């Protein structure tokens, strides 16, 4: 069947391709026309897809006069494709508008030397390729679309290994799409994890994402705001076959495990990286991990025949994809604006931008707030949905599966904490505080035309958080119904989200109104009491320390945090016993050196496993003077006192008088491990028996 | 009629919470002083301090941004909303459908993040240290909180606070050991969240009054949450009349008194906890939360 919207969308994609050819052939003369044309066409396509999604149009297909002999490419438009087309073209239009407004190179921008400003060609080509990947009805067309988009972003990126790696991953994803098309059951899962999964930044193959973000702002925005959602779309297409039977429960497990690993790895990286854009790239890995957890929950719930839970998890997935599209576009663009305005992307050279770049600061704050799981942001709604799906899932499996669900709940909490730590760290070091360099103190806002797409995206994501219920009801319900047969139904209402019909849930709109009302009441009370004079401004109190000397115009740089230690430096401090267990395991894993024949067997002092003065007691032990310099790995002091460097420096001064014998010492390390394993097995057996 | 009653109890609850929050802080300080053999300030003292601070002209650091004045407002608003959501003397208040445990955790986190942003704004060492410390402690506290919510959700089949308390009131949250573990975990979280030195070093005047009020509200929210979830004795049912409310208020006051004085006594006798031991307290909270969830799951398998 042929639908008018699909035909129009195909025409737009063809026109975008034509603009790409035009921009490549005459990069100087056609620059302006191509820029405006791309933004306009992308906006038009977004509008078309939105209308078809809202009208709940019947699925349509269209055979193209292209393709392999005997196998012409086919396009198709169903609600899921419509949803992702809206995301792609709307954010793509914003990216184009920003690129059009800032394409004149600045001489101070070290990241984009004037010699290498990409022509206007690749941008529309990338959008066309991704549009083809979304609208494709066969795997070959989707693979071709992904490959075209990868090539276009590679053309936009600075020359080097990062861009090539990005192209390689895109081609890998395209190959995986083709392989998975007609393969027997477990192959699509593997292909989805290694192909589009890698393109979205899922853990084992996520390392390429960070260097690839060091491209010009538009390329980075396309990469994380358009490419990643399309990769998620490809995963959805590969794993959810509405016509076929539901895959078995275990299909969800690798997704959940890899998702959890991505959340932890990406979240920790996002609070540790020293540059703004690389920290944001790590945030993409974290968000992809959350999405993968949602996909895993949806698969497991579908296998267990829990349609409501599947719908909730898929709702979270679509919400996270939307968030990734909007914030993944906005954040690299803001990072680009900051790099252009303040001349650097290093956190330890920025600071205090809120005074010079209030609009960029607002956009950064709005988008990081949306991904940080804080109500009433959209990220909180996604985490809430994931948690509610998790809560209904224990019926789907036995005790080991339920233990995994407990771990996932903790991972969701960790994701929330890491995301808000990332918000605090990036906004706190880049926008707040004192400027760290003269360049940052004289930063400039982006130009007026460049501000518009930024502000529009920031407003979108803020509104999305408050109206998350209507959003899911209007736009995400039809795709979910098309994928699994059951929509969100009463779980998404005007006011917010609910875990089921007639049950209270997360009411986003009332909560936001209550917060605003409380702020208003405080302001009103303050007015009522009379303002006690305007606030006076003076030097910071700073615990009473003297003002810095005049030759430090921005104060002492050592007294201002540059973003270190926003996550626990040594999380094992919370569980000292576990830390010692970890040390034990590490000691077991390291190869044991052949011992000196003169030392009697069993005598070498093992590490103190249960506290006490630690390894500091080594000097007191009898030691052969001619002992070879290679000590037993079990005795390596740096291994055991890694988390506490203080102790190492204390050691010579305070040698402990006598080593405290530990309870478990006579047994030896392997025996301790065996006992622990046996205890765990016994616990599991007991739980299974009762 | 039912809605009017619910709205009335909600308004009464908010007024009570706002009035009592500084009193709870005063009571804590008074008990601490008495146990140490000092006379101690009057329990009303925090209210007097707040009134004095609110009259003062705020002094801002030179490079403070507009965010510096906004953050105390946001923090106070978040804590006021949290206080409005946690039931005190009656169930079935007007905002009961909003009172989701995850939302509560999120609102508390919102207040914390707003304060930490303000602390980073002046660009001083104590503020930066306090902000990074807050963020890194949250990485241990939030998983524990989510595990406790998971355990409670599995126990009661919902994460709505009002429904959970109603079930506990009728003795339906089984097994009680899991609920007790969850309560202990929440207690450890509340204690660990109590110390955040340096966050307000640069704030003064009316802004400081707002933040201190918000901190008092936060403490009260924790006490109230633990008390109402695990000891809902005497709490009025949704349809109860004025007599039930009076009984509920009395029971609430008794509960708060016991919790505040008991905890303060515990803290005084156990000695001051070192600040760098907070991660271990959070580790305990996490382990307790995990145990609670496992216990619920194991008992469900056994049943």
Strand order of the largest sheet of chain A: 1-2
Ends of chain B: how far apart? Answer: 42 Å
**Structural class by sheet pairing and helices of chain B:** mainly alpha
Round the Cα radius of gyration of chain A to an integer and report it: 28 Å
Distance between the termini of chain A: 58 Å
The low-pLDDT segments of chain B are none
What general outline of chain A do the C-alpha atoms trace?
A: globular
Please trace the helix and strand order of chain B, writing H or E for each element: HHEHHHHHHHH
* Greatest interface: A-B, 90 and 92 residues
Q: Please state the oligomeric state of the protein chains shown.
A: heterodimer
- What is the residue-averaged pLDDT of chain A? 82
Instruction: Pick out the low-confidence regions of chain A.
Output: 594-668
Largest sheet of chain A: 2 strands, antiparallel
The count of β-strands of chain B is: 1
- Helicity level of chain B: over 70%
Structural commentary:
The complex is a heterodimer of chains A (690) and B (303). Chain A is an all-alpha fold. Chain A folds into two domains: 1-238, no CATH class; 248-514, no CATH class. Chain A is 61% helix and 3% strand. The longest helix of chain A has 36 residues, at 307-342. In chain A, 52% of the residues are buried. Chain B has 303 residues and is an all-alpha fold. Helix content of chain B is 74%, strand content 1%. Chain B has helices at residues 2-35, 45-55, 66-85, 101-121, 125-156, 161-169, 176-193, 205-230, 242-270, 278-302; one strand spanning 59-61. Chains A and B meet through α16, α17, α21 and β3 of A and β1, α3, α4, α5 and α8 of B.
């Amino acid at each position: 069947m042929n639908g008018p919207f699909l035909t129009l969308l195909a025409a737009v994609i063809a026109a975008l391709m034509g603009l790409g050819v035009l921009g490549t052939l005459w990069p100087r003369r056609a620059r302006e026309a191509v820029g405006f044309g791309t933004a306009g066409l992308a906006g038009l396509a977004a509008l078309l897809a939105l209308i078809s999604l809202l009208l709940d149009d019947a699925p349509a297909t269209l055979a193209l006069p292209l393709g392999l002999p005997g196998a012409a490419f086919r396009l198709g438009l169903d609600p899921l494709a419509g949803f992702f087309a809206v995301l792609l073209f709307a954010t793509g239009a914003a990216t184009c508008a920003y690129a059009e407004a800032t394409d004149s190179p600045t001489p101070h921008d070290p990241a984009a030397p004037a010699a290498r400003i990409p022509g206007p060609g690749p941008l529309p080509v990338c959008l066309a390729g991704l549009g083809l990947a979304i609208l494709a009805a066969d795997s070959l067309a989707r693979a071709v679309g992904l490959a075209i988009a990868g090539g276009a972003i590679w053309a936009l990126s600075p020359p080097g290994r990062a861009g090539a790696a990005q192209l390689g991953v895109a081609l890998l994803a395209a190959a995986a799409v083709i392989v998975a098309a007609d393969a027997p059951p477990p192959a699509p899962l593997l292909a989805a994890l290694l192909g589009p999964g890698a393109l979205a930044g899922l853990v084992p193959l996520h390392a390429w994402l960070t260097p690839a973000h060091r491209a010009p702002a538009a390329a980075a925005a396309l990469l994380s705001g358009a490419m990643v959602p399309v990769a998620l779309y490809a995963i959805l297409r590969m794993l959810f076959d509405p016509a076929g039977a539901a895959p078995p429960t275990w299909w969800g497990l690798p997704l959940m495990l890899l998702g959890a690993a991505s959340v932890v790895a990406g979240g920790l990286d996002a609070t540790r990286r020293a540059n703004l854009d690389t920290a944001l790239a790590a945030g993409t890995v974290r968000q992809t991990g959350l999405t993968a957890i949602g996909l895993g929950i949806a698969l497991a719930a579908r296998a267990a025949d829990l349609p409501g839970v599947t719908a909730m998890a898929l709702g979270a997935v679509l919400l996270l994809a939307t968030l990734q599209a909007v914030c993944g576009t906005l954040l690299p663009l803001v990072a680009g604006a900051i790099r252009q305005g303040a001349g650097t992307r290093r956190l330890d050279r920025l600071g205090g931008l809120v005074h010079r770049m209030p609009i960029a600061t607002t956009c950064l704050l709005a988008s990081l707030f949306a991904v940080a799981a804080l109500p009433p942001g959209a990220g909180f709604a996604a985490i809430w949905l994931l948690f509610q799906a998790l809560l209904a899932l224990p019926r789907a499996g036995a005790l080991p599966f339920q233990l995994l669900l407990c771990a996932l709940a903790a991972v969701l909490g960790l994701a929330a904490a890491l995301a808000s730590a990332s918000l605090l760290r990036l906004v706190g070091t880049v926008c707040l505080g004192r400027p760290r360099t003269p360049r940052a103190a004289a930063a400039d806002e982006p130009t007026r035309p460049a501000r518009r797409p930024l502000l529009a995206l920031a407003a979108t994501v803020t509104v999305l958080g408050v109206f998350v219920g209507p959003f899911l009801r209007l736009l995400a319900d039809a795709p979910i119904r098309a994928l699994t047969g059951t929509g969100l139904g009463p779980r998404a209402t005007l006011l917010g989200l609910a875990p089921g019909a007639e049950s209270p849930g997360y009411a986003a709109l009332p909560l936001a109104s209550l917060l605003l009302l409380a702020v208003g009441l405080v302001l009103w009370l303050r007015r009522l009491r009379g303002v006690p004079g305007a606030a006076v401004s003076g030097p910071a109190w700073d615990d009473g320390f003297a003002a810095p000397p005049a030759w430090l115009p921005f104060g002492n740089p050592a007294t201002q945090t540059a973003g270190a230690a926003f996550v626990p430096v040594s999380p094992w401090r919370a569980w000292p016993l576990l830390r010692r267990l970890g040390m034990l395991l590490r000691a077991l894993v390291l190869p044991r050196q052949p011992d000196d024949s003169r030392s009697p067997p069993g005598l070498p002092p093992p590490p103190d496993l249960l506290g006490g003065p630690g390894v500091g007691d080594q000097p007191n032990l009898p030691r052969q003077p001619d002992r070879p310099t290679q000590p037993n790995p079990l005795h390596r002091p740096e291994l055991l006192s890694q988390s506490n460097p203080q102790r190492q420096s204390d050691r010579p001064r305070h040698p402990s008088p006598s080593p405290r014998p530990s309870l478990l010492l006579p047994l030896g390390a392997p025996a301790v491990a065996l006992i622990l394993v046996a205890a765990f097995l016994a616990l599991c057996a007991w739980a299974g028996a009762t | 009629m039912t809605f009017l009653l619910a709205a009335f109890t909600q308004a009464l609850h908010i007024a009570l919470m706002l009035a009592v929050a500084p009193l709870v802080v005063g009571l804590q300080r008074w008990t601490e002083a008495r146990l140490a053999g000092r006379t101690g300030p009057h329990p009303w003292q925090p209210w007097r301090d707040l009134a004095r601070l609110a009259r003062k002209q705020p002094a801002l650091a030179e490079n403070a941004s507009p965010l510096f004045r906004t953050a105390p407002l946001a923090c106070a608003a978040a804590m006021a909303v949290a206080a409005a959501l946690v039931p005190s003397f009656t169930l079935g208040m007007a905002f009961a459908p909003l009172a989701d445990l995850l939302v509560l955790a999120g609102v508390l986190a919102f207040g914390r993040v707003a304060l930490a942003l303000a602390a980073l704004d002046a660009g001083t060492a104590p503020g930066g240290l306090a902000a990074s410390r807050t963020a890194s402690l949250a990485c241990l506290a939030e998983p524990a909180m989510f595990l406790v919510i998971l355990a409670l959700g599995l126990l009661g089949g919902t994460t709505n606070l009002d429904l959970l308390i109603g079930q506990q009131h009728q003795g339906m949250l089984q097994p009680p050991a899991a609920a007790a573990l969850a309560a202990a975990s929440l207690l450890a979280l509340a204690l660990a969240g109590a110390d955040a030195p340096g966050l307000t070093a640069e704030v003064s005047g009316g802004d400081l009054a707002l933040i201190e009020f918000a901190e008092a509200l936060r403490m009260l929210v924790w006490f109230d949450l633990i008390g109402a979830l695990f000891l809902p004795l005497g709490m009025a049912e949704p349809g109860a009349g004025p007599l039930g409310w009076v009984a509920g208020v009395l029971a609430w006051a008794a509960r708060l008194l016991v919790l505040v004085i008991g905890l303060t006594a515990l803290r005084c006798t156990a000695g001051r906890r070192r600040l760098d031991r907070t991660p271990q307290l959070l580790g305990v909270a996490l382990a307790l939360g995990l145990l609670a969830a496992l216990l619920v799951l194991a008992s469900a398998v056994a049943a």
